[in-house]
Amino acid sequence: MIITSNANQQVKNIIQLLQKTKARKKQGLFVVEGWKMCREMPGDWLKMLYMTESFYEKMPEEEREQYDRDGVIQLVSESVFGHMSDTKTPQGILGLGVQPRYTWEQICRGERSLVVVLEDLQDPGNVGTILRTAEGAGVSGILLSRQSADLFGPKTVRSTMGSIYRMPFYHAEDLPEAVRELKKEGYTVYAADLGGSRPYDEKDYTRKTAILIGNEGNGLSKALLQTADGAVRIPMEGHAESLNAAMAAGILMYEAARQRRRDRRS
Q1: Is the confidence at residue 69, as pLDDT, over 80?
Q2: What value, to the nearest 5°, has the Cα angle with vertex 12 and ends 9 and 18?
Q3: Residue 97's Cα: distance from chain center in Å?
Q4: If pLDDT is split at 50, 70 and 90, which confidence band does 266 have?
């Protein structure tokens, strides 16, 4: 059966999930768009694939048959899909998935764990880019404040380019207390701060390490700064005062990755 009406309850629900954080949290679901994001979604997360007939016909036969066997394909008309989509040029497929839950142990296990701590980041693009970069840099997990941008908002999900499926994360009710708990478990904590006393590349990130990244406009709160073992700065030339939060996080993550590669070779 093909959905041909914008008034269909499934269509209305997809739109709600795309537009409202509250709906995503209440249902524990999220929506992804595009073939790459849909096919990369872990099978135990996937609840439904909504697609146009034209997209269905273009799918690789083997994958189409597998999704048909799993009973997760729902066809919709071209006009209805355009109504559902959050993108300007939709590909004709979107997926409905279950939001994963990770434990504290999953983000900070291991003797050389590297955890990135995000305090109240508001830009979905920044949060998504940090997750994507974190995967590339070998970060163990992301620790976030509850006030940070929704990981499962459509803009955040798109910015992760699939890393949302592979990067463990944990939301802390009390972020300073969570960082203190990391310290009890042997982590050294560095805060990225404009007033840092040492350049970022003069610190050792080869053991258990947590890197604190603050809000785009206000930086790190005093309470979180006080948890750090040291504050590091990224030296700046010219007249620019600071870097984009995702860029700064990326520089620190890859410095840690560089040191760890060197440490393994020695």
Answers
A1: yes
A2: 140
A3: 15
A4: low
> Residue 139 pLDDT > 90, yes or no?
yes
- Identify the structural domains of the chain with CATH numbers, from first to last: 2-98 (3.30.1330.30), 104-265 (3.40.1280.10)
Question: Of 224, 247, 253, 227, whose CA–CA distance to 115 is shortest?
Answer: 253
Mean pLDDT of 46-69: 95
**What pLDDT is recorded for position 23?**
98
Q: How far does the chain reach from its first CA to its final CA, in angstroms?
A: 62
Closest residue by Cα to residue 97 from 149, 51, 42: 42
Structure tokens at 34: 């595009």
Residue 78, both tokens: 């071209």
Distance, in Å, from the CA atom of 193 to the CA atom of 232, rounded to the nearest integer, reads: 6
Q: For residue 234, which of 245, 218, 225 has the smallest C-alpha distance?
A: 245
250: its two tokens = 């990326």
Check residue 179 and give its pLDDT: 98
Per-residue DSSP letter, 36: H
* Whether the Cβ atoms of residue 183 and residue 227 lie closer than 8 Å to each other: yes
